[in-house]
Design goal:
The chain has about 750 residues and is α+β, with helices and mostly antiparallel strands. The strands form six sheets. It has a four-stranded mixed beta sheet with strand order 2-10-9-6. It has a three-stranded antiparallel beta sheet with strand order 1-4-5, with no helix packed on it. The longest helix is centred in the first third of the chain and has 17 residues, at about 20-35.
Length: about 750
């Protein structure tokens, strides 16, 4: 008997035309079936593939064909292409891998059990259940499943959620339900992976062992292409008392999580810290001394809300967030001809943010852009992102939080997305046309008439546009499919669009996303606070996708306004938001902050004097500024915010301590040090000015005393002669500014 799938396989049709081969195969198969009629039939899909997957045979470092396989033996990643795996096992390499007459002599089992040399080591010991499964399958004739064989209908995990004390354990149980109604315990065949191994480890039999760190942890469990997630709270158990009354729904969910985990939050930040923090986070600049003194002197109960509203109405807000979005949207200058599109695109993004254009409308204008960059600046995005595959990948990752890159070649290993899903999404961009415009180096973007399709490169099957997990009504030949994509993305029922944005903005303000990384949203990467994420998503949708309202509700919360100073219980917390997590200032923000404190201005080529680093339109200015390069300003090569370097380095420290750029700023004849040295004001007032400019606070008594003593200390030149008072004062203020710049309090937003 020849399996019908094999008859249909083009590569084997000639093989099966050989009468002797067919007769031998049929005879072996019939003898095998008669000899084991009473033995339960082994299913290739439901038994063999899970066994190979559990043993790690079809992962990237072994025989996964996406990684090239090993020694000519290739299997599909995690067994997603079962029939192809069957062909590789049964017929490749002259059929040497399987021997039905003596299964234990099959090359597959000899290598897997370590009886023959195998680079992957022992994967299935001879006394293991996996070895027995493969041996029985081979003994039964090594057949593929009948078309009526039961298929996996559901995969469930027990428990789904729970609380585990520190250093405690929890045994998970996995069950598979098949189309014929049978239920099977597959705990030993499932794959387990902790999303944070510093918090919890999990054995290959599903025993979760939590460690000392407290918070929320998740375990991803996979079986036959299905995924389930176990979420656990690891409580500290400290009393959480005297919480302030929640200001909004954010506080309600954050405080509820802190009570569940027993992590008491830090106290609220003081006014000076809050003003510096919120001004940096909303506008990317330090507060002015006037803003600081006015805010600190105000006694209104709602003064924090007032300053948030003022910052959101400022042009600095638009500059700062335009810098964020244009980098993610790859507004990159590769040559001189890009300057028109770079400036036009940056201005469009900035003006849209300043006018508080709704997020769904901004995305729609970008995706469906047609015309020339002069008449419609959003088309500049299509200049940077030209291919449908790149367009779908960038759109999915940036606006949906879904990383589709894996699905181009194989089924996504951590998600439900297949190659068909990938190319169906690419079909939305298949009718984007371009032709030269009157502007040198710029194309006109237009919608080509025709039926939108994209071919799956593996199967050759043409695919119509389809959204992720949702059906899209047929698109007429003359209709631009990108408009349908925009409709689906901005739908209130879309499970990705609003969630991706609020998670991205949450990370902007809290240093860590509710889902981390912020652009990797999937069932197998659950949020640390799912109720909070759902509430943020709901609020954003109900606000009409209002970006400023989202910023407002986040920054007004007590959760955002907590101190960065840990208490005795929350020092190790990294995900419950029991305190504010300090972070280094971005390259552009830090350069502007240094200029402000030093009283200087960095000049950039072909831009008006006074242009801040945060307002630069594209990446080309990185080449003109060693500071921006050293401190990691992104080049706009990727839609991932990880391109921005936020970690410290020796080069950064040396640049701040002793670079020519820093020396010239400190010694500028029009700088703050020069002005303070010449002014006839009390020294204490000058020191207070510097602290207000750097930290948005007055100096403490000890800081004032040390600064006063240092400035009063006379200085000498290289020959040991005393400097004149003016020069001595000038160098003293330069040193004091230099010292303030190199403090963590200045370099971090806290």
């Amino acid at each position: 008997m020849v399996p019908p799938q094999l008859v249909e396989s083009p590569g084997l049709r000639l093989f099966w035309r050989l009468p002797l081969v067919t007769a031998i195969f049929a005879g072996v198969w019939l003898a095998s079936v008669r000899g084991h009629a009473a033995e339960q039939a082994i299913s290739f899909i439901n038994d063999v593939v899970p066994t190979l997957t559990k043993a790690g045979c079809n992962v990237g470092v072994c025989h996964d064909k996406a990684g090239g396989g090993q020694n000519g033996f290739q299997l599909s990643l995690l067994g997603f292409e079962a029939f192809e795996d069957f062909e590789h096992l049964r017929f490749e390499d002259r059929g040497r891998r399987l021997f039905s007459g003596a299964p234990e002599n099959s090359l597959l089992l000899r290598k897997a059990s370590g009886q023959a040399p195998h680079g992957g080591g022992v994967r299935l010991p001879p006394n293991s259940s996996g070895y027995a499964t493969l041996a029985n399958w081979i003994r039964q004739g090594a057949n593929y499943d009948d078309k009526n064989a039961p298929s996996l209908a559901a995969f469930e995990l027990e428990p789904k959620r729970g609380t585990i004390p520190r250093n405690g354990t929890q045994q998970l149980s996995a069950r598979a339900t098949y189309s014929d109604g049978t239920v099977r315990d597959v705990t030993d065949l499932a794959l387990y992976e902790s999303n944070d191994r510093s918090m919890a480890e999990v054995s290959d039999r599903g025993l979760v062992q939590v460690l000392e760190l407290t918070g929320k942890v998740a375990v991803m469990v996979r079986y036959q292409g299905r995924v389930a997630v176990y979420s656990a709270a690891i409580p500290l158990g400290a009393p959480v008392e005297n919480l302030p009354s929640p200001r909004n729904f954010i506080d309600e969910h954050v405080f509820a999580s802190l009570k569940e985990t027993g992590i008491p939050p830090s106290a609220l930040s003081d006014d000076a810290t809050f003003l510096r923090r919120v001004t940096l986070d909303i506008t990317g600049r330090l507060p002015t001394e006037l803003e600081t003194t006015k805010f600190l002197a105000a006694t209104r109960a709602d003064k924090r809300d007032g300053v948030i509203d003022e910052l959101l109405q400022s042009q600095d807000y638009a500059d700062f967030f335009a810098n964020k979005w244009t980098a993610l949207l790859k507004n990159r200058r590769d040559d001189a001809s890009d300057i028109v599109s770079n400036f036009a695109f940056h201005s469009w993004v900035r003006d849209s943010l300043l006018a508080n254009k709704k997020y769904d409308q901004l995305v729609r204008e970008l995706l469906a852009a047609t015309g020339t960059v002069i008449g419609n600046p959003p088309v500049a995005w299509y200049k940077r992102v030209k291919e449908p595959k790149q367009q779908l990948e960038d759109v999915a990752q940036l606006f949906l939080g879904v990383r589709m890159q894996c699905a181009q070649c194989h089924h996504h290993p951590f998600e439900r997305w297949s190659q068909d899903d990938y190319y169906s999404l690419a079909a939305f961009f298949s009718q984007v046309g371009r032709k030269p415009s009157a502007t040198r180096g710029e194309d006109m973007i237009f919608h080509k008439r025709g039926i939108a399709v994209a071919n799956n490169v593996k199967t050759g099957q043409p695919l119509r546009p389809a959204a992720l997990g949702d059906a899209i009504p047929p698109i007429a030949a003359g209709e631009d499919p990108r408009l349908r994509l925009a409709d689906w993305m901005s739908s209130k029922t879309n499970p990705f669009f609003a969630k991706a944005l609020v998670n991205r903005y949450w990370k902007h303000f809290f240093q860590r996303g509710l889902i981390e990384p912020e652009d990797d949203i999937r069932d197998t990467n659950p949020p640390t606070n799912p109720e909070l994420l759902a509430a943020l998503e709901k609020h954003f949708i109900e606000s009409g996708f209002d970006l400023k309202e989202l910023v407002r509700v986040i920054t007004r919360s007590y959760s955002y306004q907590l101190s960065a100073q840990p208490n005795g219980d929350n020092l190790a917390d990294r995900q419950s938001y029991s305190r504010f997590y300090p972070r280094r200032l971005q390259a552009e923000v830090l350069l502007d902050a240094i200029d402000k404190l030093a009283g200087t201005q960095t000049e950039f080529p072909n831009l008006p004097p006074g242009t801040r680093a945060i307002a630069l339109p594209d990446n080309s200015y990185n080449r003109a500024s060693a500071f921006l390069r050293v401190f990691g300003r992104p080049e706009g090569e990727s839609v991932c915010e990880c391109e921005r370097v936020q970690s410290s380095s020796l080069a950064q420290s040396l640049h701040l301590i002793n670079s020519g750029e820093m020396r010239s700023k400190l010694a500028s004849p029009t700088g703050r040090a020069e002005r303070l040295a010449k002014e006839d004001r009390p020294v204490d007032a000058k020191i207070a000015e510097l602290y207000l400019a750097a930290f948005s606070r007055e100096p403490r008594a000890d800081e004032l005393r040390h600064a006063r003593d240092y400035l009063a200390d006379p200085r000498v030149d290289a020959a040991g002669k005393p400097l004149d008072p003016q020069q001595s004062a000038r160098e003293g203020y330069q040193d004091l500014i230099w010292a303030l710049i190199n403090t963590k309090e200045f370099l971090f937003n806290h």
